[in-house]
Amino acid sequence: MMSKSWETNTAPPEPASPMPSRSIPANDFGPRLLLVDRDSAGIRSLVAGLSRALAGSVRVEIVTGGRAAAEMLRGESFDLVLADLASLSDLAGKVDEAIARLVKLSAGALLVALSEGGSVSVAVAAMRAGAHDVIALPIAPEAFATRIGELAQRHGKGQALSFADDARPGRADFEGFVGVSSQMQHVYDQIERIAPSSAPVFITGESGTGKDVCAEAIHSRGPRAGKRFVAINCAAIPRDLLESELFGVVRGAYTGAHEDRKGAAELADGGTLFLDEIGEMDLSLQAKLLRFLQTGTVSRVGEASQRRIDVRVVCATNRNPMQLITNRLFREDLFYRLHVLPIHLPPLRQRPADILVLARHFLTRYAAEERKRFSDFTPETASLMTARDWPGNVRQLQNLVRRLVVMFDGGEITAQMVTAADIESLTLGHQDTPAASRAEPVILPLWQQEQRIIEEAIARFSGNITLAAAALELSPSTIYRKRQAWADMDGTRRKGAA
C-alpha cells in the first residue's frame, strides 16, 4: 500500500503518482498528522486547512486504507491520526475492531474518526473502541479546526497541536468575553442574533461563567446601546427592600423614605434592565414583576398611579429554573414570560481550549497593571491548568492569575508557583490542583464519581445527551433524572450553607 505526504505551509499535492512512504523522526518537522482516506477531496481540504492553522511546520502523511495506516503506525510516531471510517474496511470487518487496532498502534496519538454517515451506532462503536472523538461530515473548516484544538487541549496534546496566533480558528474576544472554543463561538453567534430584538433574555450558567458580561454584550450590540444598562442583583438586596429598589418608592411610604426615588426599572427606561440571580426573588415580588412585564407599567411603593416605561428585560440565574418551579420557588407563568430567548453559558471545564487563552489574557493584563514582566506558562504548568476542573470557572482562573502576578516578580509561571498561589483550592479542598496531583488519591463518593463520568461523556459529545447516553449504555431520561437530582442536592447544600 502506498502513501503520500506534504509539508505545510503549502496546499496538499494533486493526486499524481504516489510516493513511497519513508520513516521520518517524529520531531523533525514539528506536528505530525496521519490521514487515512481513500480519496475524498473534502476531507483532504479540511486537513490542509487544519495544517495551515497549526503552529510550526506540519508534516501530513496520507494512506488510503487501514492496513497501510497500521503498517505506518508500527514504524513512526504521530501526534494526530484522522481516520475516515469508510477507509478502514480492509483492516477489519467491523468499525470497532479497526479503530481498536489503530489505537493500540498509535502510541498515544490523538485519534479522531471521520464519518460521512453520521450514524449514532457507528460513532458509539468507534468511541468505545478508543477513538477520542467522531466528527460527522460535512463540517465547516473553522469548526473542524476548533474541534481538533479542543480535543488536543483536553487530551494533553495541546503543546504539539497548538494553533498559530494569527491562524487560531474563531474569534478570540467578543464584547468582554475571551475564548476561542466552539462553545463560545456559539454563544457569540447567539448574542449577535438576539441583540437586535426587544424580547426578554434568560441566561443560565454556573457562577463565574460571565452571565453579567453576556447581559452587557446583549445591550451593547442592540439598538438600546445608547440608553442605560441598569443591573440589580436579586440575591444581594434584602427581600423587604428589593421591591423599592426595583420599582421605586414615594416619600413617606415607610420609615426612612424621605424622598421620591426611582427604581431600577424606571432608571432603565428606554434601555436594558438586568435582573441577576432572579431565582432568589421572593414569590410575592415575582407576581408584581409578572404584572410589570404584561402591562409595561410600574407603580412605586406607596403610590397608586401607574408609570409607563419601556425596557428590555434580561435575567440570569446559576440555578436550575425547572427545579425552582418544581419546588415552588419560582412562578411557572413568570418563567415562560422571561424564557423567550435563552442563552446557556458553558462551564470552563467543558471548554478546555479556552483555559490557556484566558490565562494568558489575564497574565498580560495584570502584569501591565503591576508593572511586571511575565513571559508565559511553562509547558508542564499549561498542561496541568488545562486538565483542571475549575469549579469556580473563569472567576477562579482570573483570581489565581492575579494572585500569581502579585506574589511573584516575573519570568515563566511554573507549577510550583501555581501551587503556592492556589489558596482557594487548598482552603476549599478541591482535588484538581497541581499539588493534589502529587498527593494521595482521594476516594470520592459514588454519586460524585458517577456525576463526573456522565458530565465528561456529555462534554465529549459536545453536549449531545443522546450520544452520551448511548455511549454509557443509559437512556437519555436517566441522565436527565440524575442531573436533576444533582441540582437538588446542590440546592440543599446552598441552603444549609446560608
From TrEMBL:
Sigma-54 factor interaction domain residues are 177-406
Which parts pass through the membrane? none
Outline the extent of the Response regulatory domain.
32-152
- Region: Disordered, residue numbers: 1-24
Which SMART domains does the record associate with it? Answer: AAA (SM00382), REC (SM00448)
What's a Pfam family in this record? AAA_lid_14
Provide the GO biological process annotations. Answer: phosphorelay signal transduction system; regulation of DNA-templated transcription
Cited SUPFAM superfamilies: CheY-like, Homeodomain-like, P-loop containing nucleoside triphosphate hydrolases
Tell me where in this chain the PTM 4-aspartylphosphate is found.
84
Q: What name does UniProt use for this protein?
A: Two-component system, repressor protein LuxO
Q: Which organism is it from?
A: Devosia enhydra
